């Protein structure tokens, strides 16, 4: 059942196409096309060198255009985080869609509809109850449920642990229990624990441990005579600096790398110049007694992600102004100070555009109904993401 | 220039009208109609007793239906935080709209259009530059810009301080500089610093200090022969427990009170049963070795507001389950533990619906494209908020 669609595309051409960035209404989420293309291409090349298929996760941008870039135009092979995304991409002509969430009983009808409509709509399981539900609700016309078994290799969210005595039994039940109804496509692990790392060495240690845990489980399956053709791990930190062991997987599924962000820069996943996303904002007030600038950018345009350690300062860096700090964020306002307390107000007259580099691109993108994609300083595309569930 | 509209209303009736809450797809933002009505009525009565006009801020809900409830159906007299809201409410038949943001030069054309279209579209100023801009861009046909002077009475965001030597001069310039072009409507102060309080006494002290500062400035204006008919302060904590001094103002402009939330309960602004907002979520996983439940609710459905002090636990309480704690929040997943470490999984089978009481209703509402309004356990209305800027 379709509940929420994303904003439909405008019926009239946007007046902002062709506009210089400086003329955009603020706050505005902008994406630099060349940087997006570079990020997409580097990840594709990295995967090609490892002999891995890249199945990009689309949860960061949730746009047809972003997925087209990330898949190199194939329109096949993506991961989605919600059924709203699955429907949106299916309607946009995509196929081979993996819904990477423990398949919920109360939305099985929607999954079934997608599975019938697409050549390949793939679901995720981590429990016998999930499998039982699929078996009780077979697809019509001889089609089979395509299932990835979710493994928890240390991330501690969804998934069954590969060393869990029940894991092999669950894999066997998926693969061999009712092969006319259900197919075990592969093993899926998310190493989100890389986000807690301090350097690339730590990230690679987790990527290696996750990969090894998945591959050992693949071996155990093979020894038990269980066919499991695919194996995938994902996370932008691990896929930005892959370890050689990952070449023994069949695919990877990072997502954030298309945009990157401040957090990924801090983790070492990317260089600062590889971050494609900004939130443009303008100076709307001077408060000389507090030595503060007021911006037309609050948490509705940025989110509060990044504030847990350092308060608002952690939510964004201000491009080209390393001495400026975001010290306050309310719904529609941001407050900026100089790190040393002094601020040359004449350098920032009312109307000055400042570009904020957000801490967490996924969270910031979720706040915007449209993204302004630019090249050579002008808007060349408007991307409209899907929202909801 | 219209940039982003909110989601247009569906052309077909929603299949969810009349549905029991337990059948809603999750995550779902729900609002209890009786509680909304009670909150709206209590605030109106409180204002009537004080002889104050209530000009509700609509930034929390951003819906025509919410504003209709809050204004008692008058469709007049609201505060908006963005021009997207201003256009949305103007298109919905509202008038007497106060755009409570330092009026930006680069969006003056939009303000001018609204000022011409509405009987009363009011703007906010806190600087001579803002006034100069209005004077240089007069409204046609003899219409005047309607201006509120924004005062900073200790909140430290936008506004000129009433004791600032330039404040009286700015008020005079607005009121008397070019009366054929610009009218000083009133003084506007936001006591957002009440959110840092620990109890009602502290909140009332700030409400009193803000009121007194505004009233002293009114007196100074009167003594200087400057006409300033109106004076308003706002914030849900202060207006939920108003001090007698506030009766000397002409109006107040709280917003959050229509929903209330966990934060307002903690501040003492409301009783727990006065919180109208919930995010419904379902149990999608059991992880017995970690003693954790997995929910289909992440930060896309809740925001990370409230996490700064206590991590994810601060983001929401779980209704009816005081021993349960939200210990993890990623994009689409929530993790729940029992406070004592034990968890009776049989009480929470897969599919169990849990109702989360969000820390910050404004932030949670901003994450949802539709709100499910219910009465007696069934969905009676769907509200669709405006977004963007």
From TrEMBL, chains A, B:
Keywords: Lyase, Metal-binding, Pyridoxal phosphate, Zinc. It holds the Pfam family Ala_racemase_N. GO terms for biological process: D-serine catabolic process. It comes from the Eukaryota. Residues 276-375 form the D-serine dehydratase-like domain. Its cofactor is pyridoxal 5'-phosphate; Zn(2+). Its EC number is 4.3.1.18. SMART domains: D-ser_dehydrat. The keyword Zinc applies. One of its GO terms (molecular function) is D-serine ammonia-lyase activity. It comes from Zosterops lateralis melanops. Belongs to the DSD1 family. This is D-serine dehydratase. It catalyses: D-serine = pyruvate + NH4(+).
């Amino acid at each position: 059942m379709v509940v929420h669609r994303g904003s439909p595309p405008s019926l009239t051409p946007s007046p902002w196409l062709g506009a210089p960035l400086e003329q955009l209404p603020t706050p505005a989420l902008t994406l630099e096309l060349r940087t997006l293309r570079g990020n997409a291409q580097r990840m594709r090349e990295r995967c090609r060198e490892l002999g891995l298929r890249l199945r990009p996760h689309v949860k960061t941008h949730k746009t047809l255009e972003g997925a087209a870039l990330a898949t190199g135009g194939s329109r096949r092979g993506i991961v989605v985080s919600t059924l709203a995304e699955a429907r949106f991409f299916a309607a946009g002509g995509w196929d081979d869609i993996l819904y990477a969430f423990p398949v919920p009983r109360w939305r099985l009808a929607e999954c079934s509809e997608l599975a019938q409509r697409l050549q390949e709509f793939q679901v995720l399981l981590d429990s016998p109850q999930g499998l039982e539900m699929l078996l009780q609700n077979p697809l019509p016309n001889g089609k089979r449920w395509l299932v990835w078994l979710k493994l928890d290799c240390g991330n501690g969210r969804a998934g069954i642990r590969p060393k869990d005595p029940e894991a092999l039994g669950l894999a066997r039940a998926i693969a061999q229990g009712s092969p006319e109804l259900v197919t075990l496509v592969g093993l899926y692990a998310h190493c989100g624990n890389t986000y807690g790392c301090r350097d690339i060495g730590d990230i690679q240690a987790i990527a290696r441990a996750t990969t090894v845990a998945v591959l050992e489980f693949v071996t155990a399956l093979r020894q038990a005579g269980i066919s499991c053709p695919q194996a995938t791990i994902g996370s932008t930190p691990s896929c930005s600096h892959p370890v050689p062991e990952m070449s023994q997987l069949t695919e990877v599924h990072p997502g954030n790398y298309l945009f990157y962000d401040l957090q990924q820069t801090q983790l070492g996943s990317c260089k600062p110049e590889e971050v494609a996303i900004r939130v443009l904002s303008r100076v709307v007030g001077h408060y000389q007694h507090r030595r503060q600038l007021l911006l037309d950018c609050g948490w509705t345009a940025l989110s509060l992600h990044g504030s847990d350690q350092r308060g608002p300062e952690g939510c964004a860096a201000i491009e080209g102004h390393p001495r400026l700090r975001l010290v306050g964020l309310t719904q529609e306002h941001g407050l900026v100070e100089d790190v040393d307390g002094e601020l040359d107000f004449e350098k920032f007259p009312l109307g000055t555009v400042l570009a904020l580099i957000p801490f967490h691109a996924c969270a910031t993108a979720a706040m915007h109904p449209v993204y302004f994609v630019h090249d050579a300083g002008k808007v060349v595309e408007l991307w409209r993401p899907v929202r909801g569930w």
